[in-house]
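hi!! sorry for the late reply, been swamped w classes. u asked for the two structures so here they r. pasted raw, havent cleaned anything up. first the sequence of the first protein and right below it the C-alpha cells
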Amino acid sequence: MKKKNLLYIVCALAMISLCGCDDFLDKDPQDKQTNDTYWQNETSLRTYAQDFYSSYFKGYGTDYTVFAGYFSGDDYTDDFINLNNANTNGAGYIYFPTSSTTDWNSRTETWSNNYGIIYKANVMIEKIPDMNISDEAKRHWEGIARYFRAMAYSELAKYYGGVPYYDKVTDPSDEDLYKDRDSYLLIAQKILEDFQYALDNVRTDDTKLQVNKYVVGAYMSRELLYHATWLKYHGTSVGPGSQQVSNDDIKNLLQGAINGAETVMNSGKYSIGNTYNALFTTDDLADNPEIIWYREYTSGLTMNALMSYNGPENQTQGGVTQDVINAYLCSDGLPIGQSPLYKGKDDPSIKNSFQNRDPRLYQTITDTLRIMSAIGTKYAKGGTSPTGYPTKKFLNEEWFAADSPYCQNRQSPADAPCIRYAEVLLNYVEARYEIAQVGGSAFVQKDLDESINKLRGRQLTKFQETESKTMPTVSLNGNGLSVNGTVIDDPARDKSVNPILWEIRRERRIELIMEGRRGEDLRRWAKFEYLNSEDANGNPSMSFLGAYVDMKDYPGMSSKDDAGNRVLYLFDPNNPGNEDSEKGYIHYLREKGLRVFKAGDLNSERYYLRAIPTSQLTIYENKGKVLTQNPGW
C-alpha cells in the first residue's frame, strides 16, 4: 500500500507556523502573505505555493456529487445525460442556463477564487527577486507562480472570455483595480507567456507531487489548445460583435500547445501501456508511465466515493447516452455505419451492438442491460442506470468481485489521474492538424504515428478474459484517413468537420470519456448543437436516448406497473409516433425542449460564455466604473 499523503496536513501546519509568537495585533495581514520577514528561503516558497494546489488538482473529489469533472461531473455533454440539475459547483446539467441572475451565473466562486490565486501569484513573483537564493531557484519558483497564474487566467477565460488582467500586486486604492475587461485574445497571449516561462524554468523534478516541467507541459498543451481553438471557431467573443482572430495569433497559441506536448513526448519518461480501466481504479499511480499528474488517495485518510457509483449503487445522477456508444469504432477501425463487422444494424441491442467493438468500450461500459426504470428487474450485483448503460470505467472489478469495502460509499483509495499521457498525445495531434490549417507545417503521417497510433497499440482484454485486442492503426489518405487500405467514410460525420479532424475528435472523445473534457471540447469547437434534445423532426436525439430494448428479449421484465401505467418509455425510430412501443431506445427524459440550441442566434450563442457575476457588476457600479457584461446576458 502506498505511503500516506500528508501534503495538505503539512501545508496547513506550515501556514499556522507563519503566525509565530508575536502579538496578533502587530502582525501583517496573513491572508495576503505580504510579511517581508517571511520570504527567506525555498522552504518559505514551497510552503506558500502549496495553497495553489487544491484549486486545480481536485481529482475525484471526496463526496458523492461532484467528482471534480469525472463521471457525472462534466459540463454539458452528449456523452452523459445528467439528471442532477441542482447546479452545484462542477455538476452537469440538463438545461442550459436561462438568465444572468440564475443558475451558475449568479455564483461568484470561479471569479473570486481565481483572482485570489492571481493575487497570491503576483505577490510571490514580486518577492522572489529580493530573496537570498540562487538564480536557478528564483527562476524555478517564479515559473511555479507563473504556471498557477496561467491556470487561474485560463479558468477565468474559459468561463467568461476576456477579463481584467493584472500582472502585479494591485493596492485596493488603485483605480486600475476597477478597470474594464481586457480582450480574450490578450488574456490567451498572457497565458501563453506565463506557460512558456514556466516550461523553460521549472525543474524537471521537484520531489513527489510537486509541479515539475512535465506537469507544466501537459497542462500547457491542454489549456492553449482550448484557447486557440475557441478563438478560431468563435472569434473574440460571441454574437455579432465578435471579431475574427488572425491566423498568426491562432498559430502562436497552437504552437504553445505543441511546445508543451512535445516537452512531455520528448522526455522519454512516459509511454502508453496495456491498461485502460486500471488507470482510473488503482490505489497507487506513482510509477505508472501513463500518468503525468495525479491526486493521491489513501485508505483511512483521504478517500473518494466514485467507485461506489460505478459499482453497487444505482447511477441515479445520470447515464451514458446512445450517442457516444455509437461513436465507438468497430474492431476493424471503421465506424458502425460503415463496418461489415457491426452486428447491431437491424437490432442494436447491447447483445448485438457490443460485438466486435473498440476494446475500450468493454472497459468503460457494462456489456449487459442494467435498467433503472423497468418493473421486475433484479440484479444479483451491480447498480443500474437510467439509460441502461451503467459505467464501470471507475470500478476496480477485482475489488468489486471480492466485495471489497473500497467499493462502498466514500471508501475508495483509488488515485485520480488529473492529466495523463494519452491526453497529451491527443492535444498534440489536434494542435498539429489545426496549425497546418493556419500557416503551420503540413500535417503528416508522423503526427498520427506519434499520437493516435500509439493509443491504438494498446493490448486490452475484457474482464476475466485472456484474449487481448488492439485497434488497427490509421494512415493519412489524401483528405482523410484509412485503416487497412479502406478509407474511413463515416455516414454520421458532421459534414462541416473535415474527415481527418472528425476522426481526431472521435479518438479524443472515446479515450477521454467522462474525464471532464467533452463539455470543454464542445464549447471550444462551437458545437453545442450536438446537445439538442430533439432532432430537426422533433424526435429525441441520440444524446437523450439510452440502450435499445426489445421487451420480448426480457420475459421477466415489464415496461408497465400492475395498474398498466407505463414506467419505461421506449422510442422506436421506425415508428416514432408510437407512445406505447415495446421496443426502442430508452427515452428517460421526455419533456420537450429540454435543450434547444440554434447556431447563430445570440440567445443560444451566449451559452458559450458565462455571465459576469452580477455581484461584480454591482461592485464596479458602486465605484462609478463599468464592467462590461458578456453578449446576450
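now the second protein. again sequence first, C-alpha cells right under
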Amino acid sequence: MRYPAIRITMAFLLVIAAPVTAQETTEDESKVTYPASYFAQYRPVSVNDMLNVIPGISLALEGNEVQTFNGANRGLGASEQILINGKRMAGKANEASSQLDRISAAQVQYIEIIRGTSGDLDVRNTGQLVNIVLFDSQSSSSLSTEFGATHFHDGTVEPIGTFSFSGQTGQFDYLLSAQVATAYEALESYEISVLPPGLGLNDVRKIERNRDQTTYTLNSNIAYQISPASRIAFNGLYRENDPSTNLVRTITDFQNAPPTILVEREAIPATSDNWEFGGDYEYNFSGAGKYKVLFIVNENNNAVTRERFVSSVLGGLEAKSLFLDTNTRERERIVRTSYAWNLVENQNLELGIERAQTILDSSLKIGLPIPGLASPSHGGLTPIDLPNAVSTVEEIRYEGFAVHNWQINQRMSLESSLLYEDSEISQSGDVKLSRSFDFLKPKVDFRFNMSSSFQLRLSAELDVSQLRFSDFTAAANDRDETQDILAGNPELEQEEVWRYNVNIDYRLPNDGGVLNSRLFYYDVGNSIDRIDVSTSPTNLATTNGNVGDGTVYGINLNASIRLGFLNLPQAVVTAGLLVQDSKIFAPLIAKNRKVVPFDRGNYRLGFRHDVPSKNFNYGFNYRDGFDGNRPFYDIDNVIWIGSSSNLSLFAERVGVGRFTYRFEADNLLDHETCRERRRFNGYLRDGDIREIERFCTTNGIRFTFKVRATF
C-alpha cells in the first residue's frame, strides 16, 4: 500500500505543478509572511476576514492529524495552531482560534505561516502555525460588533450576535467580548423496520426532535508587558446554555391486524455551563534563555433529565415509561512550567513539567414502570439499582518533557522530544479502585526545505490516549435507544498508537496556492471499543473496553489554487481527498472490522471569488464521505452510518461606512443522513437476524444573515 500511495502523491503534485516554476527564494524558507498591505484591497473587518483570502490557510488551521482516536483531552500539552504575537493563550475552551472574529483587522501588522520548527516558538509545531502579529501602538482601541439571525426549515428564527472591545494602552493589551449563538436544531426522521425475508414489515417510526439551545458567552484576555524581558497575561471565560429537547416518536406496528399506533413523547430538560480562568508569565534572560509558567482552572457542569411518556394517540392520556437523570461535574487544575536555552549555536533545549488534576463527579438514576416502591426522585417510577451509578473519578497526572531543536543547516531541521507521563486514577463511590500508569512518549520531526517551494516532513511519535472518565461509570447509551444504559468499566486502559507521517508541501509561485499530500500509518495498541460483560446468554450486555491491536493507513491530498491561469487571480479553488483503511480483530464478533472511528474517507471542494472593485466576495463549500464502510458493532447488533454531506453558499459585501453584510445558506441539498442497523437473536456472531432497521434524518436548510462593523 505504501509505495503505490507515494506514486499517487507525486503524480498529484507533478501534474498540477507542471505549468509553474519554482517560487522565489525568501530570507527564511520556513515562513511565509503576509503584510497588512496584502489585505487592504479586501477591506477586512476582522482577522478571520484576512485569513479567508490566504490560499491554503485551512491546512494550518485544521492541524496535522486526519482524525483522532477515542479519548479525552485533559491537561494542556505543548501544541497549538494559532499564536498571537508569537504567544499561545493560556486557555483550552478560551483559546486563540475562538478570538479571530473579535480582533480588528486594523490592529494587524502582518500574518505569517510558520512551516518549520524552532526553539524560539512558544509551542511545538505539529504541522503549520499561524502567527498573527499586531501593531505596537501606545494607545489604540476598536469596537467590533456582529448581529444577525438564522432561519431554520421549520420557520424558527434565532438571533445571533457578538460584541467585542479591544485595544492597547501603553504596555497593556486587552480584549473583552460577549456572544450570543444559537444551536437550535429541528430534526425530522423516519425509520422502517423489516423482519427477516418472508416475514414482512415490522413497524414504521416517524420522529420529530427539537432542541432549543442558545449559548451565552463572556470572555476576556488581558496582557501586560512588565519590562522588555517579562510579560504576564490572563484570560477568563464563562459560558451558559440550556440545551432542552422535545421529541415525539410515532410508531405504527404492522405486526398487529389492523396496524396499531403508539406515540412516545420525550421531554428532555437540560442545563449546561462552564467557566475557565488561566494565566501565563514569561521571562527572557539576557543569555537567550526563556522561562515560562502557565496555569488553567476550569469547570464544566451538565445535567440532563429524560422522561418518556406513551399514549395511543398524540395528545391523549399518557403513561410515563422511562425516567433517566444524569449529572456530571468536571474540574481541571493545570500548571505547566519550562525553561529553554541555546545549548550551542543552532541547537535549543527545553525542559519542563506539567501537573494536571482532573475530577469528574457523576450520577445516574433510572426509573421504570415496574412493580415496586415508586420514588419521587425517580420521576414517580420504581428505582432501578444500577452498579457504578454514583462515582467520583480523579486523576493526578505529571508530565515531564524534554524538547530538542536542531537547525541542522539552512534547509534542514530536526525536533526530537521525550515525554514521561506518570498518573494515578482513583475512583470512589459505588466502586472503589486506584490504579497507576506511566509511559514514555518519544517523537521525532524532520523537515527538509528542498527549495523555497517544496518542503518534506517526516515524523514518528508514540501517542498514548487519555481515558474518558465517562467510560469508568454507568452512562446513558447514545447509540441505541432500546438500550438506555451502558455499564462502566473501571479496568479500562489507555490506547497506545505509533503514528508515522510523510508530508510533502508545495507552495506555488507568486502566491498561486498550496498543494499538500500526507501519507500516514498508525500502529494501534489496546484499541477501545465494545467488550462482552454479559451475565448470561439471555442477558447480553457490553461496555467500552480494550479489544486488541490494529492498523490504520491512508493518504490525504489537499489543494488550494488561485485561478490566475484563467484570468481570475482573485478566485481560489480548494479541494481535498482522504482515502483510508483500517483493520482490527474483534473477539466480540469473531471477525476483522474497522478501527473506531476510522471510516473510508471523504472528499471536499470549495470555491471563493473576491471582487475588490465591487467590495464583494462569494463562494461555496461542499463535503461528502464515502458510504458503506462505517460500522459500529455491538454484541447483538451492528449499525452502518452513511456519509453526512453538506453544501453551503455564502455572499458578502462591504457596504457604506464600516458595515459588512453577509448571507449564508447551509445544507442546501437538504441531505438525509441514513443508517442501517441489523439486530440478531442472541450473539451477532451466530448470524441469526431478528430485525433490520433503516433510519434517515435531516435537519433542513438554514439561512443566516449577518451585519458586522468595526469602529
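hope this helps!! also noticed smth abt the second:
Residues 527 and 547 are 6 Å apart (CA to CA).
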